[in-house]
């Protein structure tokens, strides 16, 4: 499996490629893709990095692992390919944007449009077996994505980190909050959202207000 990753990330991450855990991880992923149906497409495993270069990162959203239904995952957390029905969490994300910013629910659930503006849509685990949620968890993707978050925290400043739910909040525990703006709420999944932990968090307007205060271009959600 070739690691096709944007050159700006290559410089930041290449020290990890030589490590034993990463070599074992890539070997596992290669074998899984060769013997089972896995998502996203092999060419999209590092899509989050390729759509959002290291020097352009303004916002980070942390997800858990890719959608495991056929044709859904495209390498960006919470995002689905064009023409795919919106999963429940994505519906609730769009409902919050509608209520927060007065924007209509979009036709496409493909969030490449966010990534291209500097929103890193990072899953903790970058691959999954079809119909088996969490099947590639605890295979060391998490070590790699922890390293990514640490690098962003250490080497950049004024990033907005959106941590939705306990998993993302744990994943973002080491973010330097004196250098970065961290917003936390419940997860957009129906279980959390319907209990009042998601709707009304206004994370999208808060993100743009923070961007504006720094003189940065806001995100077109």
Tell me about this structure.
The chain is α/β, with parallel strands linked by helices. 39% of the residues lie in helices and 11% in strands. It has a four-stranded parallel sheet. It has a two-stranded antiparallel ribbon with strand order 1-4. Strand 5, helix 7 and strand 6 form a beta-alpha-beta unit. The longest helix has 16 residues, at 20-35. The chain is globular and about 45 Å long.
How would a crystallographer describe the biggest sheet?
4 strands, parallel
N-to-C order of helices and strands: HHEHEHHEEHEHEHH
Distance between the termini: 33 Å
> How much strand content do the residues show?
5-15%
Give the strand order of the largest sheet, numbering strands 1, 2, ... along the chain.
3-2-5-6
What class would the helix/strand composition place it in? alpha/beta
- The overall average pLDDT, rounded, is 96
Features:
9 helices, 221 residues, two-stranded antiparallel sheet, 11% strand, 39% helix, globular, four-stranded parallel β-sheet, alpha/beta
Produce a short descriptive summary.
With 221 residues, the chain is α/β, with parallel strands linked by helices.
Secondary structure elements and pairings:
Elements (H helix, E strand, L loop, with lengths): L6 H11 L2 H16 L2 E2 L7 H5 L7 E5 L24 H14 L10 H4 L3 E5 L4 E2 L11 H15 L4 E5 H7 L9 E5 L4 H4 L9 H11 L8
Parallel strand pairs: 2-3, 2-5, 5-6
Antiparallel strand pairs: 1-4
């Amino acid at each position: 499996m070739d690691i096709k990753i944007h050159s700006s990330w290559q410089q930041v991450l290449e020290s990890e490629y030589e490590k034993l855990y990463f070599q074992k991880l890539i070997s596992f992923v290669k074998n899984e893709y060769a013997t089972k149906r896995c998502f996203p497409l092999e060419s999209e495993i590092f899509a989050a990095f390729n759509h959002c270069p290291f020097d352009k990162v303004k916002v980070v959203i942390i997800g858990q692992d890719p959608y495991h239904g056929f044709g859904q995952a495209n390498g960006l957390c919470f995002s689905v390919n064009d023409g795919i029905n919106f999963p429940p969490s994505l519906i609730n994300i769009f409902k919050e944007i509608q209520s927060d910013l007065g924007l209509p629910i979009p036709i496409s659930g493909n969030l490449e449009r966010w990534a291209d503006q500097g929103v890193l849509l990072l899953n903790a685990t970058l691959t999954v077996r079809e119909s088996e949620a969490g099947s590639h968890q605890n295979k060391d993707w998490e070590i790699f994505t922890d390293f990514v978050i640490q690098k962003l925290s250490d080497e950049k400043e004024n990033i907005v980190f959106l941590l939705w739910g306990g998993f993302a909040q744990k994943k973002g525990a080491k973010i330097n909050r004196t250098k970065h703006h961290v917003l936390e709420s419940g997860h957009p999944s129906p279980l959390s959202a319907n209990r009042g932990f998601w709707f009304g968090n206004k994370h999208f307007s808060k993100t743009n207000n923070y961007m504006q205060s720094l003189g940065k271009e806001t995100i077109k959600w």
